[in-house]
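Hi everyone, sorry if this is the wrong subforum. Our group has a chain we'd like a structural model of before ordering constructs, and none of us has done structure prediction before. Sequence below.
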Amino acid sequence: MKATLALLAGVSLASALAAAPAITEPVLDYTVVAGDTLIGRTGMLLRTPADWREVARLNRLPDPNRILPGQRLQIPLRLLRAEPTAALLASTQGDVRIDGQPAQAGAALLPGQRLSAAERSSAVLVLGDASRVVLAPGSETQLTEHRRYAVTPGPGATGQQPDGLFASTMRLVRGGIEVLASKLTRAKPLEVTTPTAVIGVRGTEYRVRLDGDSATGTEVLAGMVQADPARAPGTVIPGGHGARLQAGVPPKLVALPAAPDVAGIPGRFERPLVRLVLPGEPLDWRVQVAADPAFDRVIRDLRVGAGAEARIADLDDGVWHMRVRRIDAEGIEGFDARHAFTLKARPEPPPLASPPAHAKLPAGPVDLAWAANLEAASYRVEVAHDARFEHIVRRWSDLSAPRATLPAAEPGSYHWRVASVRAGGDVGPWGDGQQFELRPLPTLPQGGISGDGKQVELRWEGRTEDKQQAELARDAAFNDVVARAELGEARWAPPTPAQPGRYFFRYRAVEPDGFTTPWSGTLAIDVPRDWRMLWLLAPLVLAL
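Answer:
Right subforum, don't worry. Here is the predicted structure as C-alpha cells:
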C-alpha cells in the first residue's frame, strides 16, 4: 500500500505543526491514517527501515508504538527511499550536446550530465514533475540532482501528479535558462544554482542568467521564487519583479520593465538580412527569434543597444516568431512583446548593373542590365516615374535574359527594379528600386548676322545655371577645330575665319551637377570669299 502524504505548500522546510517541532532541513509532512504504525509505515518509506528511531526522535514521539490518525509526522528527505532518474530532452534546435556528444529530441539526461546549446541553438528539458527548462542559445547547464521518491502525494496535492515525488536541482554553467515550473507537488522546491546564488521555486515562471562569474540575474514572470545570494540574506521575489544577485550583497527587488511597443515592426521582410529598430527606446533591448510560437526552438538571441539596429541573418523563408523585451541599467530584463513575421527573401533579386544609380542620360532609348541569378529561370522588370512604383511606365513579366531596353522616353526622373522567378513560377521579392534621369537633348542652334554684316552671332536654348561649350571646325567630324569657347550664356560670336569655305558649329551644356549633355546637332556655315559682306548659314543642319 502506498503512503498517503499531505504536503503543506508542496514540500520544503516544514513549519511547526501541533506536536511536531520545525526541522531545519527538507522534509515531507506525513498524515497518519487508521492502521498506521511508525515501524510499519516508515519501513515502507525509508531507505533504511531502522531509521524509524530517528523519525521518532525528530518528532519527539513519547510512545513510538502509538500514533493517531490525523497526526502529522515530519520525515527528512535524506531518510526517504529515492532513486536517480532521467530527465527528457523534449526538443532540440541546432547544435545541442549532452556531455559534449550530439543529442537529439528524445534523449535522456541523467543526473550529473551537462546539457549545452551552441550559438543559434536551443533545447527544452522536461523534468519528472513536468517542469520545463528552456536552454537559451550559447548556454550550458548541469542536472545535478533528479530523484524520484517512491511515494504519492496526499490530499494537499494539486493537479495531475506523476507516479512519485521528484526533487531536482540544476546548475547553470553559462548563459541563461527559462523555467516553467509545474504546479505539481514536489519532494522539495526545484532549485537552480549559480556561482553566486541559489534560486528555489514551486509553481512559477522565471528566468536565470549568468552575468560573468560575479552576478546572477533573475526575473519572475509569474508566481514567486526564493533567491538566496551566497553569503547574504535571501529574499522572496514575487511575480513582475527581478533582482541582480551577487555574493555577499542583499538582493534589491526591481519592477520588471514593461513590454515595448512592437506595432511598428513589419509583418513581412523581403531581404535575407532582417533589420529592425525600436525608435525612441531609452533602454537596451533583447530580441529572440524562434521557429515556434512557444519559443521552444529559439535560434537567435541578441542584446541590442538603445536606438541601435538589430540585424538577424541566415533565416530561411517562412513564418518566424519574435519576442522583444527591455533591459534596465542593472541588466534586469522585462516582459516580452511578441510578434510573428513572414520572411520571403528568395529567390533573391539580382544586383542592378546599368544604368548606375542616379545616372543622368540624354533622352532616348535606355538599355537596362542586371546580374544573372542562377536560381532564376526568368525575371520581372518594372520602370516607373515614382519610387513607390505606382505610376508604371513599362513592365516586363517574363524576360529570360538579364537585360531589357526601355524605348525612347520623355525627359524626367525614372525608377526601375527587378525580381527573380524560379522555374515553376515561384516569384521572389522586388529588388531595391534604382533611379536614373533623362535629360533633354540640346536644341538646334540658330544664327544671325550683326548689323554691320561682318559678324555672325549663334544662339541656342540654354539654362542660365549651365555652362556652355562651343566649337567651330573645318570638318563635320570636328577633327580640325579652329575655335572653341567656354561660355556663361547660350550665345557665341565666333571669330571670323581667315579663309572662306564651309565651317561647322556645335555646342553642349555642362550642368551644375557635372552632367555634360551630348553635342548638339551640327550647323553648317558658309564663309564667302568676301566674308566682310556676309556669312551664310547653311539651311542644312547635320544630324546629332
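For your construct planning: The radius of gyration is 42 Å. The helical segments are 38-45, 52-58.
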